[in-house]
Protein 1
Amino acid sequence: LVRLRARLARSQNSLGKGLLTLLSREHLDEDTWEEIEDTLLTADVGVASTQELVERLRERVKVLGTRTPEQLRTLLREELLTLVGADLDREVKTESGLETPGVVMVVGVNGTGKTTTTGKLARVLVADGRSVVLGAADTFRAAAADQLQTWGERVGARTVRGPEGGDPASIAFDAVKEGIAESADVVLIDTAGRLHTKTGLMDELGKVKRVVEKHGPLDEVLLVLDATTGQNGLVQARVFAEVVDITGIVLTKLDGTAKGGIVVSVQRELGVPVKLVGLGEGPDDLAPFEPEAFIDALIG
Ligand code: GDP
């Protein structure tokens, strides 16, 4: 965790440092406030959140009078924490059924890191003593099932797969059936994320979801979003949120961007908390999203 924090800090703290430098200027004139706004927008904080934050900062700085670096840091930390939401429930739930395994569906656009995230999540669960079955329902991308199976072998989880181009819903069904037969604790289902048409996506994910729910409740639908795609990724995320009820967001590739502000805008946009973050390609590079650690890394 310490290592992950350090990595996050390296990639993130240009935003916080930039903000603190601007806020420390002797004269906080309109140009400076505009620069602060630009800094936030560039970091993908989003328009609404940027406006809200700048308004709060203006008020609080006015009340403050003197501005020591430590005061500014505390103030910025508090306001960013409020924006990110310190008290949201960010637990990934996997224990809905008493008799049946918990089921987690992983959705998102291809290339965002769905399969990798599914593998890493399996590793976390297995390390926690839970038995996991993987469902390779991404039958669109040819290599996805192999990739998932490799992850499964690496972490000690069985992979249920079907023929290439097969029906994702029937694979999801089989995976849950297998999970029940094996008395597994959790079934993780990797899905396809082709955004050809909204109805196509809706049909496919909707069917996977309905089929899974024949066995019992679905614990989580995690939406994987690539942090490096910024506002563009947000537009795509919105389409998924319209198609299935997302219960949590996994923000991947945070190691490759200084635009950590996407955490704020995606939660606000979709009304769903960021639960996990991806900080690299390796098996240990998935971490729970911790608002305080994140903000501290952001401010530096
Ligand atoms: P999918 O098409 O959504 O299933 O995407 P993949 O899981 O195949 O991931 C696409 C690429 O992104 C792969 O090269 C992954 O190794 C890489 N990737 C996934 N998550 C992360 C992350 O958190 N950080 C970095 N740097 N790369 C990641």
Protein 2
Amino acid sequence: KGRNNSQLFTKSMRIFMVERLHLQHELRKAIENIDNHFFLVYQPKIDVMANKVLGVEALLRWKHPETGLISPARFIPIAEEMGTINALSKWVMNEASRQLRSWNDKGIKMSICINVSPLLFQQADFVESTLYAIEEAGVEPSDVQLEITESVLTIYLDEAIDKLNLLKSNGLTIAIDDFGTGYSSLSVLRKMPIDRLKIDQSFIRDLQKDKEIVALIISMANKLGMHVTAEGVETMEQCKQLQDLHCSEMQGYFFSKPITAEEMEEYLKRPPIS
Ligand code: C2E
Ligand code: CA
Ligand code: CA
Ligand code: CA
């Protein structure tokens, strides 16, 4: 059996590698002309108690001329490997800041959350170029929140603390994304200048089963003076359970999928829960 299996393995590996190479090639081409191939969608973050939108998270989309939409879960890891993630991330930062400015100009008070890849965070000029993009767009730094993952904290701890402090002293706020899926210890968390934990959607999916963990994360965050957002809230039931746990900041399909900037302007005209 061994030989057959290994042949099967090799064949599927080959297909996988070819697909990957192809995607790399396409990605490189698309990034040469970023404005035409990528766009941002926005998902609201809701304060359920107040029944209002607290802000939006910017999420990247790649519109391939033949394949159609390609999910960031597929192309971001590849962009990270290739190093092209930095060009993409800079574009996201500029585009999101410009959109925020445009909303501000229309009298829409809004805050925006931007995902920061670990590789971008590592760049020596990350803080500078982020501040520059915000300044350039003419938006309030306090209306911009950066979402980083726990991996950033565990690998580059001292460097990370310096950078986060610098960002915070300039008015930005910081959230830990996908919280609960990494390995950051309590002592690390306590040292970090973090404003908000976003509980990973895997815990919300099985909220019945993971209720204790979620309750623990919420009470820990509260003790550390951090806000908590629950991600991936899809049902009324989950929404209610989270409120019972004293978590009222939520994001998820129950309120809205990620939508375009124009759709968001419509969305904002009504209270999120009617
Ligand atoms: P994330 O930052 O954890 O974003 C949340 C993901 O969950 C988004 O997927 C969103 O569309 C999806 N989602 C939101 N609500 C629900 C829900 O109720 N149920 C379910 N099943 N899913 C929900 P998306 O847009 O495909 O993005 C996937 C990941 O790609 C993001 O995860 C983030 O890590 C990364 N990403 C997206 N945009 C950017 C970007 O501009 N820069 C970087 N560095 N990463 C990005
Ligand atoms: Ca995120
Ligand atoms: Ca997340
Ligand atoms: Ca994620």
